[in-house]
Structures are given as C-alpha cells and as structure tokens.
Amino acid sequence: MSISLAQSRLPLIPLPYPLILLPSARLTFPIPSIQADALIRLFDSSVANPVLAAVPFVQHEGTTTLNEWGVTARIARFVRPRAHSDEPFLLTLTGITRIRLTSTSTSTSDASPPLSHVTVVHPPPDAHSPPASDIVQEFKTAAIRLLERYAQDASQSVRKRESWARIAHVVDETGQSKAAALADAIVSVVGAEHPDKLALLSTESPSLRLQHVTHVLIKQLSIAEVSTKIATAVDESLSKQQKALFLRQQLAAINAELQRLEPGNTDLHGTGSVAEDEDDLDALVRRVDALPAGTEVRRVASTEARRLRRIPPQNAEHGVVRNYLEWLTALPWAPPPPGSDTLTRSDFLANAKSQLDADHFGLDKVKRRLTEYLAVVRLRALIAQEAEVEQAKAQEVALKDAIEDQKDKDNDKISTALVRVGEIPPPQMLIPSSTSAEAQGPRKMSKAIKAPILLFVGPPGTGKTSLGQSIARALGRPFQRIALGGVRDEAEIRGHRRTYVASGPGLFAQALRKAGRMDPVLLLDEIDKVGQSNYHGDPSAALLEVLDPEQNVAFNDHYINVPIDLSQVLFVCTANTLDTIAPPLIDRCEVIQLSGYTHDEKIHIARRFLLPKQVTQTGLSEAHVDLTEPALLSVVTQYTREAGVRALERTIGGVVRFKAVEWTAYVDARGLPPSSLPSPVSSLPSSSIVVDSADGLVKSATDGDAGYDPVVEAADLEKILGLSRHDYEDRDREARCGVVWGLVVTGMGEGEIMPVESIATPGNGNLKLTGSLGEVIKESAELALSWVKTHAYDLGITNKRSQDPLRMPDAMIDVHLHLPAAAQKKDGPSAGVAMVCAIVSLLTGKCVPPTTAMTGEITLRGRVSPVGGIKEKVLGAHRAGANRVILPWANRKDVEHDVPKEVRVRTQFVFARTVREVLDAAFGVGSLPWHGDAHPLVQSRL
Ligand SMILES: Nc1ncnc2c1ncn2[C@@H]1O[C@H](COP(=O)(O)OP(=O)(O)OP(=O)(O)O)[C@@H](O)[C@H]1O
Questions:
Q1: Is residue 151 part of a domain?
Q2: I need a surface site. Which of 93, 240, 498, 802 has the fewest CB within 10 A?
Q3: pLDDT at residue 434, as a whole number
Q4: Angle CA 508–510–512, to nearest 5
Q5: CATH no. for residue 357?
Q6: Is 62 among the annotated ligand-binding positions?
Q7: Closest approach atom of ligand 1 to CA 469
Q8: 680 pLDDT tier (thresholds 50, 70, 90)
Q9: What's the CA-to-centroid distance between 461 and ligand 1, angstroms?
Q10: Residue where a domain stops, chosen among 287, 306, 330
C-alpha cells in the first residue's frame, strides 16, 4: 500500500540551539527584531493565525544545521520589548504535528531571517497502529511515579505541588489513543535531555515513541531520586555562617554518589592527601585501642572511630568527629598507677611540712591547717588502701572457692584439656559476674579519696596560688590552674555540645588533659568572680556539680559526653572575698583565711624569697644586689602598701633591674665577664654611673675607674624608684576638724584606713551623704547624727537640751558626710563610730589625731557593737602607720587570736563599749565637755 504524503511550503522559524518544540507542547524563546517584523507582516497579511514550521538546529562535528524533523506550530503569544530597551522580542509557539523537511529544504543551512520558507512533508496521522495497552500502561506508571516524586520534592511550594499532582491526574485519565500525544507533552515538562527530545521528534511510530518516553521518564526519576538523596544528605538547619560547611557537605554527598557509581575510584576528591589522612587515622585508631578495655569511653571511641572511617575527609563532619576522638583519647582515663603520689609514704607528712616551710614564710596557722588537711587526706588514703588489701584477700578466697567448685563439677583432666583447646573459658572466667565486678571495685575506692575542698580567701598576693602549688609538690601530683574570673557561660565549665560550631570541652576536661593524670591538684582561681545565673546558664551551679563529691564521680562534660571521674582530683579554690560566693559553694569548702602580712613578715618574705627570685631572673647573683634592712623597710612602708606581696615583688624587681643596668655598664667599661663577682676593692660609689630612673637607661657611663656598689641603701631608693607613692597620702593625713579615719575591708579582702569627711554647709538642718553608699551605711550615718543631736547638750555643742545643733538661731546648717574613693561601692555598719566622731569633731571644732583609726557599729542607745574583718583592718591600720586603733569591746578576742604579736605590741588598742568611750579615746579624756547623761525624755528604752 502506498501512502500519499502531503507536502506544503511553510514559513520557517528556526529554533535556537538547543531548543526543541514537540507536538502539543509550548515553547517561548527570543527572536531577532528583523524576524519579528517579518512575522508581524505575515500575521497582518494572513486571514487566520498562520501555520509555521518550527525546526530545531542540531550540531554535528562543530557545524550547526537544521534538523530534518520539526513541527508545525502556531503563534500562541508574541511579546514586544519595552520602548528604548535592549530586550528581544519573545515568541511563544504551540507545537501541532510532526513534519519532515524535504531534501531540498534540509540542505538549507542558512535559515537566517527575515523569513525563509521550507517545503515540508506531513506524515499521515493514521500511518501507524495505536500502541499496545501494556506499553501505554508502562508509560503511565512511569509518568505518574515521576510526577508524584516532583510533587513530593516541591514540598515548599503549594502551587507547584498542586500542578504536578494535576498533571499526574490527567495522565491517569488519558485513554489509549491519546497516550502518544500526551507523551510528547510530558517530555517537554519533565526536562528531558536534548538528544532524547530530538530522537522523539523523529519517531513516527506512537508505540516506539511511548517506549522511548517511558525510558526517558525512568531516567528522570532516578535523577530526581539521586538529587533528593543529595539534598537530604545536607543538613537543612545550617545557618548562613555555615555556607562553607553546606557546600562541602553537598560536595561530599555528590562524591559519595559518584563513589557508589565508580567504586574503584578512590581519589574522587582530588586532594591527593588520602594516604596522609589514612596514616593519621591509623594513629588515632591505635590510641582508641589503647583506651582502658571494657569502659564506656572505649565503647564510644570505637563507635566514633568506625564512623570516622566512613566519612570522607572533605566532609566537615569528618573534622568534627576526628577532633572529638583526639580529645577522647587525650584524656587520662586510666587510673594513676599505685605509688604515683607520695600520699601513702611514711614520711609524707614530714616532707609536706618541710615543703610548705620551704615555699612560704610565716603563715603558721595556715600551714598548721594545711598539715591537718593533708593528714586527713593521707589517713583516708591509708584506710582505702587497707580496704583494698582486705578486698583483694576476700577476692582471692572467692577465686579459690570458685576453682574448687569447678574442679568438683568437672573431670579435672577433661576440663583442663578443653581449656587448652579453648573450648571452655579458664576457671577464673567462670566466677559469678558480681565477683568480677567487685574485683574492679577496690582499686577505684582506694583512689576516690574524697578530700575536703580547700578554699583560700584573702587579698591578692598573699600566697593563695603558691600554697596550692606547694600542696601539689608535697603530694607529688601535677598542678593545674583554672582561672574562673569572669566565667559567665556555663559551657566554659561543662563544654559545648558537639552540635555547636567550633565546640570544645570545658575547663575541667582541658585541665585534666594538660595534667595528664586523673588525680591532679586543680586550683580554681578566683571562684568569687564566677558569674551567677544568666541566659548563658548558671556557671556556679555547674561548679557545684564539679565540687560535689557525690556528683563529680561522673561529671558530664557536654562535649566529651562520657562521664568523667573527678573524684580523685584534689580541688583547691581561691577567692578574695566570701561575699560573692554562693552559700552552697562555701558549704562544700573548708575555708582558710589569709589576711595579709605585717611589715616584718614582708621584709622576711622579701629577703628570703622575693629578692633571690628577682636576682636570679635578672641573671645576677645575690652578691650583686644587697638591699639593706632600712631600704627594705622603706620599700615595704613607703613604696608598697598592700596586704600581699605582689607589688613588693614588682618593686624589688625594679630595684634589681636598676642594679643589673649598673652592673652591665660596669663590666662593659672594664671588659669583665658579666658573671664575675663585684670585688669590695673595686666597689666605688654607684653614683659615678648615672642611670635615668625614668626609663632605666644609662645616660652617661663613667670611665673605666667607675665602681659598682651592690649595696642599696634607703637613701638610694628615690633615685631608683622615684618619689614614694605614699608620700602624698601621709602628708594629706594631718589632723583636720571634721575628718576621722575609719577602717574598712575592700572588695579584694584587703584592710585599709579610709577617711570619713564631714563639712557644714548653710542649709536646713539636713544630712547629706555622698561616696557610693549603700543602704546600711546610710542608716549608720543617720544613726550617728541622731546620737550626736541627742547628746549635743552633753557635748557642749548646744546650750539647751531641746536645741537642734543644726538649727541654731544664728546658723542653720546641713551636715555633709563624704567617704572618698567615690567610685567604690561602700556598705556595712562598721563606720558608725567614725561617723559619730566626724560629726562631733565638725560641731565641736576638736580634731582626732590622724594616727588614730577606728571601726565599730553603733546602736541608738549609744552602744558599740562588734564588727568583722578585725585582723585585716588592724593590719591595714598598721600598714598606714596608724598606731592607735579604737575597736568594739566585743572584738578583743579577735585581736588576741588573730592579730600578729608584732603588730599588737606596736599598736595601742582601745576597746570601747559605748560611743562616749569612743569619743574619750578619739579626742582624749576630758577634751570634750560632758554634761551628764542624756535627757530622761530622749533616753531610749531599748
Ligand atoms: N608567705 C609567703 N612566702 C613566700 N612567698 C610568698 C608568700 N606569700 C606570697 N608569696 C609570693 O608572692 C607571690 C604572689 O603570690 P600568689 O600568686 O600565690 O598570690 P595569690 O594570693 O594567689 O594572689 P591572687 O589573689 O592575685 O591570685 C608569689 O611569688 C608567691 O610565691
């Protein structure tokens, strides 16, 4: 049967490469303006919408030609660009039927605008029989699966999801006869590749077309599934900052997919460092294998190591897991070997005492308490050791019994033979599990000493940290310091969870790693400066957990995520004050107070410890620097006035460096080796070498005759250190009316003298208070004024009992009380007596000597109540040169017990029970008039 093929000549619209229009499909593409003009002319001259021949271009071996097959098409839309814009015309065509270009047309490689015409052949629609139902069904199944997958993947866009679902529904409803036409339309929307579309365009047979489309749909489906896999491999919760991480994860997911397709290709990442990584990984795995067997850390580390092997090195997760494993394997999980510290040695206590003596001068009470503490620690360790021996014995007996039982049950020979061939475990492995668990117990117990936690409280530089170091040395354990000052984030203590970017373990895990042992001495420095509960968590609550012996056996660091046993750690805390430490934290500690040093103690510390230390650090020997006793005293009293010895050490360092400069100039001038000792013969006055104390540089070295004098006299200090810092303060402390010296303890735990200043200003009889005062101290001031007003007549301030001393007929005044160093917050009742004296001094015109300092709370009845911090305050007064101190009567015992004898003998203490006694002591007995007791009407009944 011959088929007559219809031919026609149609205007040609060549489709830019790689566009292809299929029948029943739509395509929008830009066209040049010259072609657009021709189309418009064609449109205008036609009665109906003209039919065009839309033919794609194909590329073959570098040349572009018109394809043999195309479609007839009608214009669906034509969009003109906006005026004066560079945008092109947009043409939308709807494909109708397949056409084939005749041989003469096909040869037309130049299908350039404006509008050429081609002769096309129209294949008849019934040229082929309709497709078989199973082919149609296969097509429909593939199409619906793909469309449903698209609908699923478009979960974020409801509109898209609905349109995919609608198309799937249309496919489902389409009958057998229209399936081939539908296939053309579907292929255009599922994004089939260019060769597939081209092949489809030239396939006339509906069955073949359907089969081809089914194949294309299945291919698209697997691409969609792979894309989804890649997409899900990427953590969707990643933030913007993690862009790099996101891209690496995508890359890794793609690599993983490629690896699956090409299993042999190992260097898909193109890094070339695979071998190196493998080596590191092996080392890490070896460290994992070295972890104590049967422990949780071993189990976790092994799991993570296996996981690490599966994660490609380019994946960010690889680095995270590796870092985690590095930490896990770096922590000292194994219990310290027996005898690794000196605790159980018979000479431990004697050695510890001599260690403390060797490192610190004075601090007798502190050392005594520390020795008691170490004795307790040792005793507990010995008891635990004894228990360990007992348990070991019991274990041995249990083991023997178990072996005997075993022997009774089995034939000895057979059982031994079986053991030899490995068919049954050796007898000791048959011991009931409870016994084997006990076997691990005593070892742990012996180490879990649960010593009390020491808390050293005192001003800076009083030796808190160095006492901690001495304890570690005495115990033969490593020492680590954890600075807690300013820790606001709980995560700094507990670590960050691993999900957190740049996460890491907390301070305790870090310290254990550095210590390299599970039983170090950990010094928790500045525990009083730990932040309280805030939006970063509660660091002090986390500290509580660390320090609680009941909980720290299994301390949970969020990063490590395996319980860490901190029970073997010896904790020593330091603080400047107890005021800011949470009471539960204080409860867990044994508080040891260090109040500061006397002048004598400082001189001894300087001579025995600080000067030798500074001299060695400078590279000189002790023969090169000789600070005389008066010079040291001057440094202690005139250049440093602190409770501790830190500034003293710095100042001595300054003196030693000055001498080092002199010595260098001396040896340079004489060509001597710097290590040579200064000879007394060659010693000449050091003034012959001029050194500028401002910058410490030698301004003019003298000639070779210049000598070097190692002796530093008190008179040399001004040249070396400049003017005394406290000169001005001393001059300022002359007797003035209205000014009295009180005693305070600063926030750093240091005792100081502090002036209470008062002046009278014209006013209305009010009290004005300044100096960052808290509520309690304000009340004290009001109390003081009330007392003075009540006793104004007795003190001769007013002439009548009923008269207000601030509202005299000839002078209405306000009293202004000020406590300098206004930036510092002040509170507490202990300035009561000083305030009374200041007001009395102001109103009577009598002065209190500046060498008298006082502290004490007053009551409305005029009693003086005891206050705290006596030792610190008295030491503060001693440092400031106040040789007379007025204290509450009830504080006598504090002076007796706490104040060093050296200070006691140099200070005159006046213990007062009443305000009147305070006034007598401050102004001198009889210097203030006293007209009898207060008026009965204003006498308090309290
Ligand atoms: N009694 C002492 N004998 C010898 N040296 C001492 C004594 N007290 C303190 N020192 C020395 O003073 C210096 C400062 O001491 P340390 O660092 O222990 O002070 P601290 O109380 O911990 O201060 P902070 O509260 O500022 O941490 C150290 O060099 C220390 O050796």
A1: yes
A2: 240
A3: 40
A4: 70
A5: 3.40.50.300
A6: no
A7: 18
A8: low
A9: 4
A10: 330
Query: Per the structure block, which two tokens stand in for 478?
Result: 């490593």
Give me the DSSP letters along 267-287. -TT--S-HHHHHHHHHHHHHH
The answer to whether position 160 is within a domain reads: yes
Nearest residue CA, atom 11 of ligand 1? 463
The conformational region for residue 738 under phi > 0 = left, psi -120 to 50 = alpha, else beta, is left
Q: Do 788 and 828 have their domain in common?
A: yes
pTM for this prediction: 0.59
Ligand 1, atom 16: closest residue by C-alpha = 463
Annotate 659-696 with DSSP letters as a single string: HHHHHHHHHHHHT--TTSPPPTTT---GGGSEE-TTT-
pLDDT one-digit tens code per residue, 429-486? 444 444 343 334 334 444 445 667 889 998 888 989 999 999 998 888 899 999 988 7
Number of C-beta neighbours around residue 740 at 10 A: 32
Whether residue 374 sits in one domain with residue 442 = yes
Helix then strand then coil, % of the chain, to nearest 5: 45, 15, 35
Q: Which token pair is 347?
A: 């000479």
Same domain, 768 and 898: yes
Distance of CA 150 to the CA centre of its chain: 45
Examine the pLDDT at 147 and tell me if it is beyond 80.
yes
Domain end point (choices 96, 122, 148): 122
In this structure, of 29-43, 277-291, 317-331, 698-712, the range with the lowest mean pLDDT score is 698-712
List the structure tokens of 151: 């609908």
- Parallel, antiparallel, or unpaired: how do β-strands 6-15 and 51-60 relate? parallel
* Same domain, residue pair 306 and 454: no
CA 855 to chain centre: 43
C-alpha of residue 523 to centroid of ligand 1, in Å: 14
C-alpha distance from residue 453 to each of 336, 461, 482 (Å): 20, 21, 15
881 is annotated as contributing to ligand binding: no
Residue-wise pLDDT for 482-531, tens only, equals: 998 878 788 888 888 877 666 788 899 999 999 888 889 999 999 888 87
Q: How far apart are CA 336 and CA 131, in angstroms?
A: 82
Is residue 1 situated within a structural domain?
no
Query: 238 exposed, middle or buried (CB, 10 Å; 0-12, 13-18, 19+)?
Result: middle
The residue with tokens 């040869």 is: 107
Compute, in angstroms, the gap from residue 713 CA to the centroid of ligand 1: 26
Q: What is the DSSP letter of 773?
A: B
What tokens appear for 829 in the block?
């009742």
**Tokens at residue 313, please?**
């090195």
Number of folded domains in the chain?
Answer: 6
Q: Was 851 annotated as part of a binding site? A: no
Q: Is 927 a catalytic residue?
A: no
Q: Convert the pLDDT of each residue in 884-924 to its tens digit.
A: 999 999 999 999 888 888 888 889 999 999 999 999 999 98
Mean pLDDT of 830-834: 90
Type of residue numbered 273: S
Range of the domain at 629: 599-725
Confidence of residue 386 (pLDDT cuts 50, 70, 90): confident
| Contact (Cβ atoms closer than 8 angstroms) between residue 161 and residue 151 | yes
Do 882 and 854 share a domain, yes or no?
yes
Q: Would you call 830 a catalytic residue per the annotation?
A: yes
Q: How far is the CA of 830 from the centre of ligand 1 (A)?
A: 29
Enumerate residues 6+ apart whose C-beta is below 8 A from 920: 926, 928
**Do 547 and 651 lie in a common domain?**
no
Distance of CA 134 to the CA centre of its chain: 67
Euclidean distance between CA atoms 465 and 308, whole angstroms: 42
Q: Is the CB of 367 within 6 Å of ligand 1? A: no
* 29 strand-pairing partners: 91
ipTM topping 0.85 = yes
Do 323 and 376 fall into the same domain?
Answer: no
One-letter amino acid at 649 equals: E
Catalytic position from the list 830, 841, 846, 871: 830
Is the residue at 938 inside a domain? no
Assess whether 665 and 634 both reside in one domain.
Answer: yes
Residue 797 belongs to domain with CATH number: 3.30.230.10
pLDDT band at 409 (very low <50, low <70, confident <90, very high): low
